[in-house]
Amino acid sequence: MMHNYQDNEFAQFWIHNEILFFKYKPNVVINLIAAQRIVADRIQLQNEIAYPIFCDIRGIVETDKAARDYLAQSGSILTKAVSLVGHHSISLSLTSFYLTICKPSVPTKLFTDESAALVFLEEYV
Questions:
Q1: Which intervals hold domain DUF7793 (predicted)?
Q2: Domain 5-122 has CATH 3.40.50.10600
């Protein structure tokens, strides 16, 4: 088993070139229990080291308010910066709203282009 890879029913996580990649699985619904599991698995993988995070949210179909609140607070533990990559206009508008209302505690930006998302994270490596 690779030590820099983790997988659960909601997402896959791996560390490559000092960046933690985080990809939600297709058609996933995130509630508070799912959010807590996702954050716990990510923190375990990081082994107390903070990383910039590339987060592919394109698989998420729905999140509830408790999950969003939890991710906005505890989701920033051990993160230097976060790139969120989405594609649907609905997920993009929800995410923009989330970024405005919840104000994550680390630099967080929303992208539709993966390379732009990686460029944003490079200054935090």
A1: 13-124
A2: yes
Residue 100: predicted pLDDT: 72
| 79-85 and 108-111 strand pairing | parallel
Structure tokens, 105: 């505690």
For residues 62 and 118, what is the distance between their CA atoms, to the nearest angstrom? 25
Tokens 């903070």: give the residue: 50
Q: Which helix (H) or strand (E) holds 65?
A: helix 65-73
The token pair that represents 124 in the structure block: 């935090």
Q: Is-contact 68 60, C-beta < 8 A?
A: no
In whole angstroms, give the CA distance from residue 95 to residue 37: 20
Better-predicted residue by pLDDT, 65 or 2: 65
Q: pTM, whole model, 2 decimals?
A: 0.85
* pLDDT at position 125 over 60: yes
Task: Provide the angle, in degrees to the nearest 10, between the axes of the packed helices 89-102 and 65-73.
Answer: 60
Q: What is the mean pLDDT of the chain?
A: 88
